[in-house]
Amino acid sequence: MIEDRYLSRLRQLTTGGRRRILGLVGAPGAGKSTLSQAILDAFPGKVVIVPMDGFHLANVELARLGRASRKGAEDTFDSAGYVALLRRLREQRDDETVYAPTFRREIEEPIANAIPVAPDTPLVITEGNYLLFEHGHWKGVRPLLDEVWYVNVDSALRQQRLVSRHMSFGRDEDAAKQWVEHTDEVNARLIDATRDRADVQFSWSS
């Protein structure tokens, strides 16, 4: 359940007659996608979700670069492409539909041009891990966002969710736990260091 104080901020973001972009950031398993969907449900017809995960490099490219074993790290994304899309969404013309990529966990691959964003959509939500990084192409993300919310959750619960997620997509329990420990948690520590740059610290109500 989204508390009234957050809903009030969201109402402001969906009114006023101009495009707003809200960034949701947090460690892997924090619930960014769940919050995105909850906002979409609360404001039907006014929100489109554009995930940063659509800019994962393809598995074949990760293998070529020797980065497949740490997929999800900051250098396993097309960060320049992500910034370019956010800029297009910020500057979108009235006669233009912008198409964004998505990420399909069942095949562990990005899918291009899967999410249409109409020019009259008042609020675009983009959710991902590295929205508040201040180096490389990532530093171009924050200036294109109207607000950034950091999604907080109990660390043990977050890790449990990640293990379950990886198992649901084919890893056995030991492999899932190893991936969480050696990949997801390495990224989580980097992401957590950016939390103070967010406009809002979001926590679910009980």
UniProtKB/TrEMBL annotation:
PANTHER family: URIDINE KINASE. Its EC number is 2.7.1.48. It comes from the Bacteria. It comes from Paraburkholderia metrosideri. InterPro entries: P-loop_NTPase (IPR027417), PRK/URK (IPR006083). It is an enzyme of class 2 (transferase). Gene3D superfamilies: P-loop containing nucleotide triphosphate hydrolases (3.40.50.300). Transmembrane segments: none annotated. Residues 21-202 form the Phosphoribulokinase/uridine kinase domain. This is Uridine kinase. Keywords: Kinase, Transferase. One of its GO terms (molecular function) is uridine kinase activity. Pfam families: PRK. NCBIfam families: PRK09270.1-2 (NF006743).
